[in-house]
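Q: Convert this sequence to structure tokens.
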Amino acid sequence: MNARKLFTVAAAFNLLVGVPMLVAYPVVAKTLALQGPPTVWFHIVGAVVVLFGYVYWKIAQDPAQFRPYVTLGIMAKMLFVVVIYGHWLAGDLSGRVALLVTVDLVFALLFAAYLRRSAAAAFARPRHAQERN
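A:
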């Protein structure tokens, strides 16, 4: 998968997850087997997910220019995975949430593969192109 497609798909995924977290809690709660009303933390997570959707969309527009943000995306996705899996293993979350965040694990691995593939090209760019970043 080329970088533009990868990050476009990642952006779409984040928006498909984040927007319902912000505006359709009853549907999200039923789908993911969440208990209780939404908290401010739930909505903050939804907002961060949407924000990263925008970041992935920007990377998709110009992967070379926004390449430094890919590492941030990997870190964010892996932090979500670690936190969600930890709560799932502790019995605090349903397996549905853990299954959903597995998509983040796949994206983190794909983002890392992109960084490895594109490393030589990033270093080969002319110095003035690197200074744009």
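The radius of gyration is 16 Å.
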